[in-house]
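#struct-pred
JK: can someone run the complex with pyridoxal-5'-phosphate? inputs below
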Amino acid sequence: MQYRAWFSAVDGSPGRWPLNEVIYRAPTGALLEVQHDHEALRSRSASAWMKLFDDRYLRTQWPYGSGVWGKKEWVQPHIADENIVSLLEGGTNLFWAERYGKQLGVPDLWIKQCGTSHTGSFKDLGMTVLVSSVKQMIADGKPIRAVACASTGDTSAALAAYGAAAGIPVIVLLPRAKVSAAQLVQPIANGAIVASLDTDFDGCMRVVQRLTEDPTIYLANSMNSLRVEGQKTISIEMVQQFDWEVPDWVLVPGGNLGNVSAIAKGFEQMIELGLVTRRPRLVCCQAKQANPLYLAYQRATAAGRPLALEDFEPVTAGKTLASAIQIGNPVSLPKAIAALSRYDGVVEQADEAELANAAARADRTGMFNCPHTGVALACLEKLVGAGTIRAHERVIVVSTAHGLKFTEFKTRYHQGQLELPAPYANAPVELGHEPQQVVEALHRVLDQRPAP
Ligand SMILES: *Cc1c(COP(=O)(O)O)cnc(C)c1O
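RT: done, structure tokens with the ligand placed:
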């Protein structure tokens, strides 16, 4: 069976473009999205798709063991296997947050650990699709010299790694002093051209759009809808991990807002093709320091109507520990608003103390959270407190990066250096070397410490 997909405009304006064309927007200026020939995909039944995906999942037949490429027909059917650049994406743990969920009063709580991946963030899911597509374009004769992105850290790490694996030159534009040390060293180590710009992310985004007006430099930001095709597999994989059952809620931290719509797109495709019949509710979780969508949601709610584009105004993002979502003018805003309206969405926010303490409290139950996951966990706590999310409901929090990429954040929290109340700070016990004294001291600490 020949499966087909193409670009079309999200505003419904006419036109179809092939997936190997260098194009990011429709003539109207609207963002593009990848559309699949669902008629052709329906030639296989829903149960046959589920079986195929289950048979491939984390198996050895390259590249289908990848959580993204195991769903290749739904992602990028036109790419020849030899052009796929896969470093094993997806297949990440869906962590049952048993103790943490009980503490919050939502015992059916699960954390999708998307940061347990090659470059340590969920951006790998989309980047494997983008870089594989570029490799296919080059094979098809497109004169692409390099791939470029603006980044808050994780996009550049993923692009640099996949570009290096494919042998494609990479340019990354980073806002100076606004990414973690680990995030900065990743593209450096992978040999990318790393430009540190004296601006914020939104400023880097303006530069990369100019840079990629030259069609030989391909744009890798999430406004490039090829990445959405990889990110949407988060939804498919989460449902697959529950033996094809849909959760009640999915919470995800939001910055440039590509992922909230990607998650909706994954569910939409499963509904279209009959794998599932219902939708979860979506929550976009923003840092209070970079909360333009939250403010728009508040305006709409105060006026008693659904969130719409007119409610939105860009902001200048303030400094936040959740640096990967420090974005004031999100590029994928229209897609996110459409997704939230279809998924009975909620937008919540968390301030610095809330995100840091939620991350630290959850770490005490066996996680190791990045600050963005902290934002989502803090928003979860608020929505449970407000009665929006109820005790019996099944909730999945999408954890977007590995905590080890943000060790400054975690170290400073536990050293009490974040200038906020840190009730879960856990300083090391400084002791000498005499065995008996150390043993006695440890017994005293153990006796005094409350049960975990
Ligand atoms: C990119 C990123 C996000 C936000 O995703 P958007 O699609 O930009 O909203 C959240 N957390 C981390 C760690 C990220 O790297």
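RT: quick notes.
The mean pLDDT is 96.
The first strand starts at residue 5 and ends at 9.
JK: thanks, will look after standup
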